[in-house]
Amino acid sequence: MPREPLALGLTFALACVSACLFLMLRCEGKGRMFGPRSRWWALSVVVLTSVLSTAAAYVTVTAAHHLPQVILGLGVLVPSSLWLGEIRQGSSERRNVYRDAWTLWVTWLLARMHEGMAEDRMDWCETHVDPHWEPDQLVRAARFYQDYLEERLSPEERRRARLRWLLHNIEARLDLARLIESGGVRAKVAAALGASRLAQESRYRRSLDDLGRLAALLRHDAQRDVARMLAVAYNAGFHRLGRYSRRLGPSMTPAPRIGSQRSHP
Predict the structure, then answer these.
(1) Which residue has the higher pLDDT, 179 or 93?
(2) Which of 158, 134, 156 has its CA nearest to residue 145?
(3) Among 53, 97, 98, 101, which residue's Cβ finds the most Cβ atoms within 10 Å?
(4) Which pLDDT value is given to residue 86?
(5) 164 CB-side CA count, 13 A
(6) Domain residue spans in the chain?
(7) Is pLDDT of 78 > 60?
(8) Which of the 8 DSSP states describes residue 7?
(9) Distance separating alpha carbons of residues 90 and 69, to the nearest angstrom
């Protein structure tokens, strides 16, 4: 078999592997790269990047009349731009059609992939929160998820996630919601609000004249904070975490982090 076609085929195969690895680095801590909604966008990025890198390597080497082995090196290294581009994401660069075209639509595919990852994460979090849970059930669920994460995350990860802060907010909101639903009058609710960690929330103070609306708002915000806690679990790779139920309780068997080398008893 001629050397150049063999080199091109090998380059494309290794470029696909390289693109997958660097794309995984780019998506680390952000969710599942190959989730239900994101997998086809991720595959498109890998294939397009590998085709472009292989073609660029071939054109460059052919023009320079170098050895075919150089094709292999260039084709494997070019996909690293998938990860290097992540380093520059700190600057809020506005996406536009000219930049998408300039990058041969790789940035457009990456944006679609990240949107798919966000939708996958939202769907997963919603399956772990029952909108019909009573405040007591929602508090128990939040404590269950918090305990689950506390056992598995490193101290630095727990600090960044602010799990205790989220749990305290959930408890404060649902305590106030329980007070309203048990028939608490406006004066009593206002006093409890002023004495809680929620005293600075202007939205709640403005809703004191409509306690039904305030209770619904408190429930909604508590569910949102539980979803934030679940998003931490999802991004950390704990995709096998089951939804809270009385049957599971806090003694649920630990599930390993997907893609992690950590082991748990």
Answers:
(1) 179
(2) 158
(3) 53
(4) 47
(5) 5
(6) 3-117, 128-251
(7) no
(8) H
(9) 36
